[in-house]
Design goal:
Elements (H helix, E strand, L loop, with lengths): L6 E9 L4 E10 L7 E4 L6 H14 L4 E5 L16 H4 L5 H6 L4 H18 L4 H10 L1 E5 L9 E2 L15 H18 L11 H15 L6 H9 L5 E2 L2 E2 H4 L2 H16 L10 E2 L2 H5 L7 E6 L5 H20 L9 E5 L13 H12 L5 E7 L15 E4 L5 H14 L6 H9 L5 E6 L6 E5 L15 H8 L49 E4 L6 H7 L9 E21 L4 E12 L31 E2 L9 H18 L2 E6 L4 E3 L5 H72 L5 H55 L2 E5 L6 E18 L2 E6 L5
Parallel strand pairs: 3-12, 3-13, 4-10, 4-11, 5-10, 6-9, 11-12, 16-23, 17-19
Antiparallel strand pairs: 1-2, 1-15, 7-8, 13-14, 14-15, 17-18, 17-23, 20-21, 20-22, 23-24
Helix pairs in contact: 1-5, 6-7, 6-12, 6-13, 8-10, 12-13, 19-20
Amino acid sequence: MTTMDGKYYLGKVWDPKTTKLTDEALRYDSEDLTTHAVVVGMTGSGKTGLCVGLLEEAGLNRVPALMIDPKGDLTNLLLHFPNLLPSDFQPWINADQARKEGKSEEQVATDTAAMWKKGLADWGIEPDRLQALADSVQFTVYTPGATAGVPLSIMASLGVPALPWEGNEEVLGEQISGTVTALLSLTGMKEIDPVQSREHILLSNIMANAWKQGHSLDLGELIMQVQTPPFAKLGVLDVNSFFPEKDRFGLAMRINSMLASPSFQTWMEGDPLDIQSLLYTADGRPRHSIFYIAHLSEEERMFFVTLLYSNIETWMRAQSGTTSLRALVYFDEIFGYMPPLGNPPSKTVMLRMLKQARAFGVGMLLATQNPVDIDYKGLSNTGTWFIGKLGTEQDKARLLDGLTSATTGAVDIKELDRLISGIGKRVFVMRNVHEKKPMLFQTRWAMNYLAGPLTRTQIPALNALVGAERAQPATSAASPQARPAMAGAPPSQPAATAAPDPVGTMTRPPVPAGAGEYLLPANLSLTEAAAEHRYNLDAGTRESGILYRPALLAQAEVRLANARYNLTTDTVWTALIPEPEPQAIIRWEDNHNPPVDDRKLDRAPLRDARFASLSGPLADARQMKSLEADFTDYVVRNGAVNIRANDKLKVYAGPDVSDEEYEKMCREAADDLMQAELDKVTAKFDTRKRSLEDKLKREESKLNKEEADLKSRRGEEYMKHAETLLGFLGGKRRSLSSSLSKRRMAENAEAKVKESESAIEDFKKQIDSLQEEIEVALNEVREKYDGLIAETNEIPVAPKKTDVRVVMFGVAWVPYYLAESGDRQVEVPAYGVG
């Protein structure tokens, strides 16, 4: 029996007349699967065995397959044992069942191995066919949302596809629609209408806008853009009219709550949800990828199924057309995913694929044990129906009614009814549009050991059995560097270390309501920034981008007006705290910063910059309001200024006046006051001094006259003595009384001269004494005012709340250079406070 002839050996024809198995093999043409197939049958009908057999044949024919396993039955596809040894079977034996049968596990394994060997032989299946199955495809069990198997990351679904937007708008739009529908379903939304749902329209436009520009999204970026859409209008309405900001915030919170859930983190890990990689290995070997979803909630199952089908559809539309079976997509239980009524997220994309997949050679195999609750009209494009034993007449009636409406051409309902009514376990009616009439067949023995549904705890061993490697978690980049604090913060500056890549989002996170927002300038080059912040960068370091990180900026102006001192003093208080910790008490005094000039702030972010997320108080309007009040109180408590006051000199100065200038002001004021008092003191002594000086002058004038008179008298006296002497010598007698009279007159004149001289000397002494008295008085005045200069008091003047005006308070976006330095990516602050 060949393995790659495209004819799938599903079993042998069953004769309804004799109710016996014939020797005629049922060879199902694989190309018939391009028109899809539906398998219907109750529990125990053999439905799982049929589907396993069909998938085994696909594997033997090297047809890749993607399989959704809601119950755990498809995990049996990895249990193929070419050697058929009891030891191969034993790990998968149900221990509880063995105990019920009163047997050991070893005995049950031996019995099972023998039974499987006989069953395969009875159906003409040789061990080499089992080996061929093992060698044909790579088997892997994936566990989306869990790590038991190989986990799957959904992030690739938000990444920009390889297909260019231009020329592929329709197919990419459909993928966006499916992805958004899946995402919204995971948030708990039901009955999502892509045309009417505001949430769907907004998210779809955000994704389309990013993909048009060649940008990938992640959930963080998506949340940011929900709050701050990158476009102004949706349709003809502005965004806020179509979807108010408050409502958008509610949607962002729903997505963020999902993202923040610890259980959601496993959705971000593992192999990417890349269809090409899930269908083929890197070396081109086909794969059978089983998606085990038994552990997921209903919402999570709907999310994953919708997302998977959307990605399959996009991959499919990128392929060339073919009439051959290119790949198989199997869903083991479609109940709830394609109901006749309602529109769950999965239904639209599944119906679309049923209509379009044929052209691309993608076959859809759908199974259900509930024929009542499926959309038969949607299944009208299905070419093959496999119908097994049904549980109730109602099931049969609904199936027959559905087939009448779902299939093209005449349907012999009575014949189908008769065939269905007579079938037993493992017997199926096959209605194939490519065959002339329905036929009965019994499924062949499965090559894989049908152990029944396996649990999540068994999956690691199952993957190990076939060598399926579990995705290794991406090695995390070094922890984010400790960034240097802004000026005014503690002075420690760490060395640059590697930062995670990528960091932040392209969209600026919205700041809390009521908070300010400020873009600090990148006023340093990379070289200047490294020097100022003491970073040692390798030679050849290059800038690779700009990242804005948030900081709390607080700036207040304080104006103190004092009428008593006739002073107005202005001061500025500024604090800059990089990414404050949640609930942390901010020590404003440890974070003083030079004032920020609002005229030098940037009005728009730098091109292609990314933004770190807001957290802690920077993301909480209530905390921001509380911190602003706390900052105001801090400034009021600590904003007192010392006024230097010299009340006697009437000189006052605030902190804006230097000590040298203040001393000069006091000296000038003292000099003015001192001069006035010196003039007063001088004026007081001037009268006495002038009186003495006048007396001195008069006495000196008198002395001059008396000295002249004395000189004259002495001359007369000398003449008289001479005349008397000559008279005696000449013999004449002269009167001595006349001579004596002249002498007395001379003596009187001399006495007057001496009296004047004494008076003059006394006046001079009085004047000198008075001058000394004046100097003493003047010196006393000078000393008095020299002392007044030193009589300065420092008077604290505290502000009231009304004196404090907060001019900036909110989120400051601090630019950082992202630089490639050697094998590291480092962050260097691009803002300098100098």
